[in-house]
Amino acid sequence: MTRMDADDEIPLTGGRQTSGIVRVGDTVRRPMGPRSPFVHELLRYLETVGFGAAPRVLGVDGRGREILTFVEGRVFHEYGEYRLSDAQLANAAALIRRFHDATEGSRLAAGAEIVAHNELGPHNAVFIGDEPVSFIDWDDAAPGTRLFDFANAVWSFADVGEGGGPVEEQARRVRLMCDAYGWDDPREVVDEIHADLRRALVNHEQAGRRGPARVFREMVRWISAHAEELKANANI
Hints:
Organism: Rubrobacter tropicus
Largest sheet: 5 strands, antiparallel
GO molecular function: transferase activity
Keywords: Transferase
Protein name: Phosphotransferase
InterPro entries: Aminoglycoside_PTrfase (IPR002575), Kinase-like_dom_sf (IPR011009)
């Protein structure tokens, strides 16, 4: 690969992604982390089994950064500035199902149900029109369960929460994604969203992170007040 100067580097900013990420030509350079070996093995495995909606690992550059393929398209970075279409939601859910199916029973799942991405959402998906063409930012990927990974994705993609509009509409989006994934009972997904937000709140409180704890306390307050209504409307 041709060596490029720093002037050729274009910072990639926005969303909740890892800092220090730059684009160099048709590649992305990212800082290596403690989980990079697992992530690289996962991305190579996905390439081997024909799952095309993930970056490809190209190696490590002279500055010790991982080199991945750059995926053209749109990433929705800022919550509140977008509302995904029904087609985008359904296609994202179907792609999540394909990813989960691809890792089920694999060595990388290490006895768990699947390998979970653990941070799926519009901020970590590249869209071209209504089609999600790639999931990105795989740093938190690890053995996990379908329910946790899918519920976390539904919470983010379907914009479940105080700023997500009428509860009936949020429930409709939850049901839409469940149908596209093939998840029979949306109530399980809502319950998992509720449980995950409570776990996140406890973690932030125990770690003394006052700002995030305040944010998650409000999220838990909202979902606690509306979970039953969400489940009732999503199960119609």
